[in-house]
Amino acid sequence: MIRDITIGQYYPKDSVIHKLDPRTKLVGTLAYIISLFLFNNFLGYIVVTLFLVGVIKASQVPFRFIIKGLKAIIMLLMITVLFNLFLTKGTPLVEFWIFTITKEGLRISLFMAIRLIYLIIGSSMMTLTTTPNQLTDGLESLLGPLKKIKVPVHEIAMMMSIALRFIPILLEETDKIMKAQIARGADFESGNLVKKAKSLVPLLVPLFISAFRRANDLAMAMEARCYSGGEGRTKMKPLLYQVNDYRAYAIFVLYFAAIIAMEIVL
Amino acid sequence: MSIILDKVNYIYGSETAYELHALKDINLVIEDGQFIGIIGHTGSGKSTLIQHFNGLIKPTSGSIYYNGEDISDSDFNKKKLRSKVGLVFQYPEHQLFEVNVFEDVCFGPRNLGLSEKEAQLRAYEALKMVGFEEDLFYQSPFELSGGQKRRVAIAGVLAMKPDILILDEPTAGLDPKGRDEILEQIKTLHETTNMTVILVSHSMEDVAKYVDRLIVMNQGEVKYDDTPKEVFGHYLELEEMGLAAPQVTYIMNRLREKNIPVNVNVTTIEEAKEEILRVFKNR
């Protein structure tokens, strides 16, 4: 049951995109998201679509996997589309009862939907091809300059990776305890809200205890290995840019330039 | 009263990148009153298999029958099944949550809708069955030792009065004394109540001593299903699966190689002793 949920949704493959440095992917995703809101012409959509299709092809992640990420935003998407569709003023196309659909409304809602979908697909391309640990590593390195103004970047990154590491463990634990209590006749599904909330006690108490126990064990293990924060700490796998990363950056610059140029020329 | 598994398959994370075929065409009949051991390497599918017995996992394909009824039928009472097929998970002490031991053991019977009096009576009986000291009944379960916690957790399942008791690695993480105590108690339980007991383990020594039927799992398949003596005869194949026969099997086979005419079909240290003495007396 719970085991089926994937967090971080990393899709293991050995593609060019997977092998890129996480920093490249983070910067690239940011640039891509900004680029989505820079243009306002039809040609821009073609360029973005081509770019996105190229990245998806290169990443070798099956398309239905990428689509899965869209399920989460269906509600948001519907609301955006409906609001834009009915509330934009302009030349009316269809009129019925109190609703009017305008030409501008249709155009805006359609393009808004495409932008949102591209936004989600683009950012999930990053999470699908990068492990959560790589992501935090990349983030730590990119936020490195903030250390100068006394932001504990390493500690924040460490907390993030520990939190991410614990999600699957706790999910598995939840699944296990849930099954154990179901085996003892517990019922987590039926009853009203109060009864449902009460039925969670046999699940939450053991879960909290185990979370604290694990946290305690981890802290002890880190202490035993003399962990003392980021000061003077070296990495086993330091992030190094490869040739492909420079190529990727070049492609991003080209892409970005193309989007801006089009907006200026057209 | 029996469980029948017919061509049961189970696939974890079906149609994802992490697809895992955990059970492959399992056919099994669990008869009444047997003491069964299920053994296999980590990841061989033992834990997945036993969760099918009380309907916690629905098979991807195939059917499971309890007393002739298909448990995946929509009108089948799963709650009743779970009270009749008691499942004690690995490290069951992690499921304890109540303020004291007695209340925790009452949780199961209360869920069955029994009266308060009946639930308490069952809890008392169950705690007695696992040999739990009476003066600790109102202790917080979190202040007990590992072995005691485990007894409480086992009692929590026994209080539901199951016909079939399944224990997943009941001795994991216990010291040798705690291990022997728990196993002896399970054996006594089996003998006095004639309950069907299924013991999941990866320790051959543990199972060899107690069970009368041994199921060996390997990579999601049932490899052997026979008496321990017969199964241990395949000790070379067992080794290939990352398992090992009990140490006495090795000793007896070595003796045989040295032309000492011992019977290699012994499984416990006691039997081995008798056998060696017999051979030496006959010389």
UniProtKB/TrEMBL annotation, chain A:
The chain crosses the membrane at residues 29-53, 65-87, 108-131, 151-171, 246-265. GO terms for molecular function: transmembrane transporter activity. InterPro entries: ABC/ECF_trnsptr_transmembrane, ECF_transporter_component, EcfT. It is found in: Cell membrane. It is a multi-pass membrane protein. One of its GO terms (cellular component) is plasma membrane. Keywords: Cell membrane, Membrane, Transmembrane, Transmembrane helix, Transport. Pfam families: CbiQ. Forms a stable energy-coupling factor (ECF) transporter complex composed of 2 membrane-embedded substrate-binding proteins (S component), 2 ATP-binding proteins (A component) and 2 transmembrane proteins (T component). Belongs to the energy-coupling factor EcfT family. Transmembrane (T) component of an energy-coupling factor (ECF) ABC-transporter complex. Unlike classic ABC transporters this ECF transporter provides the energy necessary to transport a number of different substrates. This is Energy-coupling factor transporter transmembrane protein EcfT. It comes from Candidatus Galacturonatibacter soehngenii. The gene is ecfT.
Automatic annotation (TrEMBL), chain B:
It is a peripheral membrane protein. InterPro entries: AAA+_ATPase, ABC_transporter-like_ATP-bd, ABC_transporter-like_CS, ABC_transpr_CbiO/EcfA_su, ECF_ABC_transporter_ATP-bd, EcfA2, P-loop_NTPase. The keyword Transport applies. One of its GO terms (cellular component) is ATP-binding cassette (ABC) transporter complex. Its main location: membrane. Coiled coil: none annotated. ATP-binding (A) component of a common energy-coupling factor (ECF) ABC-transporter complex. This is Energy-coupling factor transporter ATP-binding protein EcfA2.
